[in-house]
Structures are given as structure tokens and as C-alpha cells.
Amino acid sequence: MANVHLSIDDANNEFKLRERRFNYTTPTSFLELIQFYSKLLNEKQGAIVDSIARLERGLSTMTETTNKVDMLKEKLVLTMENVRIEEKNTDELIQVVNKEAEEAEIEQAIA
After folding, report:
1. For the chain, how many structural domains are there in total?
2. Please, what sign has the CA dihedral across residues 91, 96, 101, 102?
3. pLDDT at 100 over 80
4. What tens digit of pLDDT does each residue of 30-84 get?
5. So what's the pLDDT on residue 87?
6. Do residues 2 and 35 lie in contact, with contact meaning Cβ atoms separated by under 8 Å?
7. What is the per-residue DSSP string for the chain?
């Protein structure tokens, strides 16, 4: 920072030649430079902390979603097994009903 502050003397000389006006560098302006740098540094660090927090929230949300999807997959597998069992029971019931319907038709024909 001191180097930047001292290099302003060259810029001041160029300004004096071009604009024919003086620009002074004082210890106060050096302190203002430090204050500005400190403020800028705090803003950038705050932005980085906010970005980190946002990314961590996103990662935790993705982890939760992945866990929920895995649970739903397991539940789907169990549900599909239950559907197969119910499908099998329904097929058996249809066969029984068809058989009884045939018997009923035969008895009705006899009657």
C-alpha cells in the first residue's frame, strides 16, 4: 500500500504537466486509502462468506433430496411387490369367478 501511495507522486507530476493543476498526497489520503482497502476487503470477505453459506445450503438440500429419492425408490420396490401379489390374487379370483360362472351356466342350462 505504501508503494501505491508513493507511486501517486508520479501520477501527480503527470497531472500537473497535463492539467496545470496541483494534486497533493497527504498522510490523510494515505489513511483514507487504508480505510477504503479495509472496507473493500470486508465487503469481499462478506460476499465470499455469503457464497459459501449459499453453496452449503444447496449441498444440504441436494443431500436431503437424494436421501428422499432413495427412500422413495425403496418404497416403490415394496409397492411394486405388493402390486404383483395383488395382481396374482386378482388373477386367481378371476379364475375362480370364471369357473363358478361356468358352473352356474351349466346348472342354469340343466334347470
Report:
1. 1
2. positive
3. yes
4. 888 889 999 999 999 999 999 999 999 999 999 999 999 999 999 999 999 999 9
5. 95
6. no
7. -HHHHHHHHHHHHHHHHHHS------HHHHHHHHHHHHHHHHHHHHHHHHHHHHHHHHHHHHHHHHHHHHHHHHHHHHHHHHHHHHHHHHHHHHHHHHHHHHHHHHHHHH-
Q: Which domain holds residue 38?
A: 2-110
Rounded-to-10 torsion of CA 46, 49, 54, 59: 170
pLDDT above 80: residue 1 = no
| All three cell numbers of 35 | 480505510
Distance CA 37, CA 89 (A): 77
Q: How far apart are CA 84 and CA 29, in angstroms?
A: 81
